[in-house]
């Protein structure tokens, strides 16, 4: 199994990324890709939980440094049907209690219909992303158009294992004119969740 390396991330969500987007696009694009994902948003947690390509994918926020960069650690990529033990791990990340009478395993549809939809604290959100990637000074840089419930917003991010390098690139691209807003906060803002 490949070693899991947590990455420092700086991201923002804006209707117009202005000059920073022009700065990013002055570099050579590496690839553009589209994906449709389902994020599970919890009113009481900021762990990043989403379903992409049939996998339950979870990243947890480990720390925030003095430059407001966030360190995210991937902790799960679970294949459906998800066994009960994996469902319990997911709900710990949601910080939401779970029925004691779990089935042995849950298909994707059962997971959404029987466990997510009935909860007052959880909401499944369909997210479509069109992402363009760049490598700038060794960091992963992304510009994306994100569509949630028919609303469209732009996001830009810089990621790397070295926080000083991330912050240097953020400043170089002038992205620091915007606040650092992670995916969970950006999506919650779009749907009006606390």
Give the topology:
Elements: E1 7-14, H1 18-25, E2 31-42, E3 48-52, E4 55-64, E5 70-79, E6 82-83, H2 84-94, E7 105-106, H3 108-116, E8 122-136, E9 139-148, E10 151-160, H4 163-172, H5 183-191
Antiparallel strand pairs: 1-5, 1-10, 2-3, 2-8, 3-4, 4-5, 6-7, 8-9, 9-10
Report a brief summary of the structure:
The chain has helices at residues 18-25, 84-94, 108-116, 163-172, 183-191; strands spanning 7-14, 31-42, 48-52, 55-64, 70-79, 82-83, 105-106, 122-136, 139-148, 151-160. The chain is of the alpha+beta class and 194 residues long. The termini are far apart.
Main sheet: strand order: 1-5-4-3-2-8-9-10
Fill in the CATH topology.
Hypothetical Protein Pfu-838710-001
Shape: elongated
Strand content: 35-45%
| Low-pLDDT residue spans | none
Give the beta-strand count: 10
Summed over residues and divided by their number, the pLDDT gives a mean of: 94
- Terminal Cα separation, in Å? 37 Å
Main sheet properties:
8 strands, antiparallel, barrel
Q: Structurally, how many domains make up the residues?
A: 1
Please give the CATH class. Answer: Mainly Beta
Structural class: alpha+beta
Helix-residue proportion: 10-25%
Q: SSE string, helix = H, strand = E?
A: EHEEEEEHEHEEEHH
Radius of gyration (Å): 17 Å
CATH hierarchy: architecture:
Beta Barrel
Per DSSP, the total helix count is: 5
Describe it for me?
The structure is a single chain. This protein has 194 residues and is α+β, with helices and mostly antiparallel strands. The chain has one domain: Hypothetical Protein Pfu-838710-001 (Beta Barrel), CATH 2.40.320. Helix content is 24%, strand content 43%. It has five helices and ten strands. It has helices at residues 18-25, 84-94, 108-116, 163-172, 183-191, and strands at 7-14, 31-42, 48-52, 55-64, 70-79, 82-83, 105-106, 122-136, 139-148, 151-160. The strands form two sheets. An eight-stranded antiparallel β-barrel has the order 1-5-4-3-2-8-9-10, surrounded by four helices. Strands 6-7 form a two-stranded antiparallel sheet. A hairpin with a 2-residue loop joins β3 (48-52) and β4. The termini are far apart.
């Amino acid at each position: 199994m490949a070693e899991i390396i947590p990455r420092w991330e700086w991201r923002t969500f804006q209707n117009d990324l202005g000059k920073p987007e022009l700065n990013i696009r002055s570099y050579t694009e590496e690839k553009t890709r589209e994906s449709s994902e389902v994020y599970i948003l919890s009113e009481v947690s900021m762990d990043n939980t989403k379903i992409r390509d049939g996998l339950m994918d979870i990243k947890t926020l480990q720390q925030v440094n003095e430059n407001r960069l966030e360190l995210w650690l991937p902790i799960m990529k679970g294949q459906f049907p998800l066994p009960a033990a994996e469902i319990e791990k997911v709900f710990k990340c949601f910080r939401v209690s779970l029925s004691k009478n779990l089935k042995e395993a849950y298909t994707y549809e059962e997971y959404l219909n029987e466990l997510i939809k009935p909860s007052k604290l959880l909401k499944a959100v369909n997210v479509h992303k069109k992402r363009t990637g760049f490598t700038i000074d060794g960091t992963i840089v992304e510009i994306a158009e994100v569509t949630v419930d028919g609303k469209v917003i732009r996001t830009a991010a810089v990621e790397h294992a070295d926080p000083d390098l991330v912050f240097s690139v953020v400043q170089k691209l002038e992205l620091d004119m915007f606040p650092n807003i992670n995916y969970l906060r950006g999506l919650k803002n779009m749907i009006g969740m606390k």
